[in-house]
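Input for the complex:
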Amino acid sequence: MLADLDPHEGEALLDGRCATSMPAPAWRAKVVYQAAEPAWWEPTAGAHFDDAERGFVEQSLAALGLDARILDSDVERLSTGERQRLALVRSLARRPAVLLLDEPTAALDPDSVGKAEALLRAGLADGMAILIVTHSAEQAQRLAQRIFRLEQGKLVTGEDA
Amino acid sequence: MNAIHLGAWDLVAAALLILLDAALSLALKLGVHRQILVAAVRMVVQLLLVGLVLRYVFASASPIATAAVILFMIAAAAREVATRPRQRLKRQMNYQISAAVVGISGFATVLLALTTAVRPDPWYEPRYAIPLMGIVLGSVLNAASLALDGVLDGVVRERARIEARLALGTPFREAIGPLVRGATRRGMIPVANQMSAAGIITLPGIMTGQLLAGMDPVEAVKYQILLMFLLAGASGLASVGAALLAVRALSDERQRLRVDRLRQGTI
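Predicted:
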């Protein structure tokens, strides 16, 4: 609903402007949603980035412990974890104001999770807002300012971390 | 024209070939003899009926009768286009899109031919309007159903990719672009093939008919060229129209991909 990809009721606001007052693509460029299993529409990962994003992409890949050469290989042949980290870079490269992440580190080993979280923290420090859906209570504790718990489809708590 | 008249006995001789097919099927246990016999009888009955109706319409030269025949042909073609894709849009949108596409591309090209190239008097002369519409609709049917199927099947297959692009702020038109182009191309390929094969690999049906009916070969060829152009134009219009209307039906004012507008359980 926040990414405005499905029909919904209610209204979401960003800096006081409601979603419906903006063209949908403009809203989605600011409020980027990353699905649990992100899809790729070009044969290589690199083709999903603009040249202007190149610097940021290489920097982020290094921060995630990935070789920049991964950009030229066939997306289909990458591991789930590699694709997941590339998707994170793809989302961050759009410089959204809000990032909506669905299980962004589910396929990563603990070391990579730490690197991904560091990258997200850098985003937060730059003023980005992040909404993460995660099954890991530890991850929630490490990253969150506020934690909401969803139990059987109901929002039960909204505690400050 | 000095066509050689076909008598009933001439047809009976050719019908022996159908019996030969049936005998082969029985002898080789192919199990298709029933099907072939039924299809042959059906074909004879259908064509005789069409011949009788057309004889009446041609003789009456009535604009109303001509319009009725043409509308019936368009409705039949539209129905075929709507029901061919495996995926169906809700609220009978398949039918609405097919009717619009088939009607517009059929009328546009046939009217163009009747008012510029053929110019019969009156312009709706059924002897020209009806066969022209018939052959154009054949092409339109192919093109529109391929393009429609391409879009409807494509959005189900490509949904994740399209939504991934939308989620990053890509405008809908750009995110769906490759799919629309692919579907449109699919619709236009048959007529391109038909044009390049014409005369070398196949003698087109119309031309064969005219040659058998005693027309001068070059005159028959000119007609065939005219028809090919009409078919190409109609196929282009039909492919683009079907693809664009289908995509429009699958998105909304917030540039979302509305796969939920496809009927469930038809996969």
